[in-house]
Amino acid sequence: MRTASRALRSSIASRPPATGRSAADADRESLMYKYLGEIRLFAGDVAPSGWAFCNGQAMSMTEYPALYTVLTTKYGGDGIKTFNLPDLRGRIPVHIGQGPGVDSYYRLGQTFGEETVPLTTQQIPPHSHSFEVAATTADATAPAGAMLAEAPAQSGFTGLYTDTPLQPGTTGALAPQAIGSTGGGQAHPNVMPSTAINYIIAITGSIATAATS
């Protein structure tokens, strides 16, 4: 009887309203019909009867055997006593597969993406750094721990640059303040403007059959 009732509702939802029935009645019956595992958006904060929030909760395989045949353990669960509902909290659903211009193939139930992303040196735009020099007369000839400064008179310094190749062990790090520091190393937000709303999944209803051409 339940199967026949569902088939009747499906037939009613897919045909124009009969004489004596309003379009509103047909729309209402259409909205009542649902497939097991069907997901809809819902603006309320309490899941309607026959629905559950897509929050990854564990479901009993013995209590919801038909729903398990639809979801299996693609979204988690031990596959012995429990299976999990999809967890869409803070996530955006995308269609499975690999679309045009998309590098990755996404499987059913796969999660991916990051809320924040730290940039690598290859990802940051071209830029320059400030180079600090001292406004005093130089008093040292070794660069280690020092900063560039004005050469003193009669010092024997002939220039700032040289064509002589550096030999191993002849380099040294300048003082930390010699080159200005840029960046803080923090990850940047990777979330588009969004509005939080509930996704609900049908935990009762008809089992969908494969479409035929």
UniProtKB/TrEMBL annotation:
Start and end residues of each Phage tail collar domain: 37-93
UniProt biased composition (Low complexity): 1-18
Region (Disordered): 1-23
Name of this protein: Phage tail protein
Superkingdom assignment: Bacteria
InterPro entries according to UniProt: Phage_tail_collar_dom, Phage_tail_collar_dom_sf
